[in-house]
Each structure stands twice: as structure tokens, then as C-alpha cells.
Amino acid sequence: MKLYYNIPKSLYPFYKAELEQSNKLLVEGKLQECWWHYERAHIL
Prior knowledge:
Layout: H1 12-28, H2 31-43
């Protein structure tokens, strides 16, 4: 099993997109949807 201490470069754009989407939803007050995107970013 390989452990990663940093996000692999191939996944970084997807991680960044999830964080950007969650921030947009946070500003709109859509907290449940915001949390879903934070969780997706965490899994990546």
C-alpha cells in the first residue's frame, strides 16, 4: 500500500474544483450541499 502525504498531481484539479464549488454554496447558504462537496474533497 502506498501512502500519500500530498495530493497526487492528477487529482489536484478535481480536489480544487470541489473546494471551489463548496465555497460557492457556502456563500449562497446551501450548507448541506456545501458539506457534500467538502466530503468529496476529503475523500479525494
